[in-house]
Specification:
CATH class: Alpha Beta
Strand order of the largest sheet: 3-4-2-1-5-6
Radius of gyration: 22 Å
CATH architecture: 3-Layer(aba) Sandwich
Distance between the termini: 58 Å
Number of strands: 6
Structural class: alpha/beta
Length: 164
């Protein structure tokens, strides 16, 4: 599933006017959910902010520049009809995106879902998690990156030998 999120709208749901302008806060809020959600594009109003990257794994950040974020969201919804679920509580934007072929999800519903994930989201997230690296794997990568070994690291020559 691909999500196109009206960031200032979601930020407003999370923390009022201040939340609507807190790009870093919106990204922090979305990241755990985005890892299990699939493709997520969050669109902010205005120029890029130095404290927010363009990409966080599956979460892409887009800035509207001189246009409104609503214009950018609508343009993307029109470019790929049926590909997006647009997340917004803006009725006019929702109506126009629905007419362009997008599904609509209320920002309030997404906010509640991120706080209390749907069971299917938890299963997908759990399946995607990697097991912790073994001591041998950690030692290998320390050698590869030239990091000093830790006590107990077994190098390739040490495997199978016992200290006397």
């Amino acid at each position: 599933m691909s999500y196109l999120i009206d960031a200032s709208n979601l930020g407003g749901v999370l923390a009022g006017r201040a939340g609507a302008r807190d790009a870093a806060g919106v990204v922090r809020f979305l990241l755990p959910w985005a890892r299990a959600a699939g493709r997520v594009v969050v669109v902010f109003d205005g120029p890029a902010q130095a404290d927010v990257a363009d990409r966080y794994g599956p979460l892409a950040v887009v800035w509207s520049g001189p246009r409104s974020a609503d214009e950018v969201v609508l343009e993307r919804a029109r470019r790929r009809p049926g590909a997006w679920t647009v997340v917004t509580d803006d009725r006019d934007l929702a109506r126009r995106c629905r007419a362009a072929g997008a599904r609509i999800a209320p920002a309030r519903s997404l906010a509640a879902r991120v706080v209390r994930p749907h069971p299917a989201d938890r299963r997908r997230a759990g399946a995607a998690e990697k097991p912790a690296a073994s001591r041998e794997e950690q030692a290998h990568w320390r050698r590869v990156f030239g990091v000093a070994p830790e006590a107990g690291d077994a190098g390739p020559a040490d495997r199978g030998k016992r200290s006397r």
